[in-house]
Amino acid sequence: xxxxxxxxxxxxxxxxxxxxxxxxxxxxxxxxxxxxxxxxxxxxxxxxxxxxxxxxxxxxxxxxxxxxxxxxxxxxxxxxxxxxxxxxxxxxxxxxxxxxxxxxxxxxxxxxxxxxxxxxxxxxxxxxxxxxxxxxxxxxxxxxxxxxxxxxxxxxxxxxxxxxxxxxxxxxxxxxxxxxxxxxxxxxxxxxxxxxxxxxxxxxxxxxxxxxxxxxxxxxxxxxxxxxxxxxxxxxxxxxxxxxxxxxxxxxxxxxxxxxxxxxxxxxxxxxx
Length: 273
Ligand SMILES: [Zn+2]
Ligand SMILES: [Zn+2]
Prior knowledge:
The chain is of the alpha+beta class. The chain is built from 8 helices and 16 strands. The longest helix is centred in the C-terminal third of the chain and has 17 residues, at 223-239. The termini are close together. One zinc ion (ZN) binds at residues 101, 103-104, 203, 206, 247-248.
């Protein structure tokens, strides 16, 4: 079973989400001409094959005040959300971090009462692509602002870190694919659940607005490769009738898509999780 947990929202400029030209079109056609887009911070929970797996952990609570000043809002503790949904944080067996950009991994750790950084899910193995870990240790100038090493360093210190060099199977129902473009070593999980296939596209396709191949996020490290990867992932989703699961779309959690004759991808069915 795959579930979605919303741990917060943030405001993001259209121009950053889709690029300058596309933003002009979108802003002029939107009802209120808003230049800012409301985004979501989503964690996905998979229960099956004897595992309880979290996919991404949001921005966490350690830097809440700074984050609120940056436009993040409705922030909730992932641990509290899980407890409210009937899960026990100590039962989480695995955490798959699509990337360790700060808005995907902050909830992996939290501050204890003495302000020391602790693992939020003490028994979980944390999966990160090796290329992503290396990018954090030795960041490129453009990407440095996306990493907060204290969010994940404790996983290494406490021997809970598993780095992926290549694609891997986490368990019978969960495949982990590595792609580049948005960043090096983005993990794209493909999950078989309840006779359906789900592709957690991460920041390769952050929202349904980004289904347009040319609408690329300003933070894509290698835009040309990001575009190619997005096309490959979306073609596979169309061919295999997968649910495309978006990490940051405030309205559309998961969608089935089709490719029109002119090569444009559109949503034809949506669902919640
Ligand atoms: Zn993101
Ligand atoms: Zn990112």
